């Protein structure tokens, strides 16, 4: 599963709109949309903020499977 799909999944699990998540992450709502649709690269510090907010690992955020 791609990182964007994971972001969408966790956002929905937390019952957040893209706008609400953008406000919590202090980014533009369009950035959330681009991440979720695979049109924008997520910077590491944004990924860390997302993972911390969702209380998940970076591996989970990007959909990395354990070996």
Provide keyphrases for this structure:
globular; 5 helices; 0% strand; mainly alpha; 64% helix; 67 residues
Sum this structure up briefly.
The chain is an all-alpha fold and 67 residues long. It is built from 5 helices and no strands.
What structural class results from the helix and strand content? mainly alpha
Strand share of the residues? under 5%
Distance between the termini: 15 Å
What would you call the quaternary organization?
single chain
Query: What order do the helices and strands follow?
Result: HHHHH
How would you describe the shape?
globular
Which residues form runs of ≥5 with pLDDT under 50?
Answer: none
Q: How many strands appear in the DSSP assignment? A: 0
Number of helices: 5
Radius of gyration, whole Å: 11 Å
For the biggest sheet, the summary is: none
Mean pLDDT: 92
**Helical amount:** 55-70%
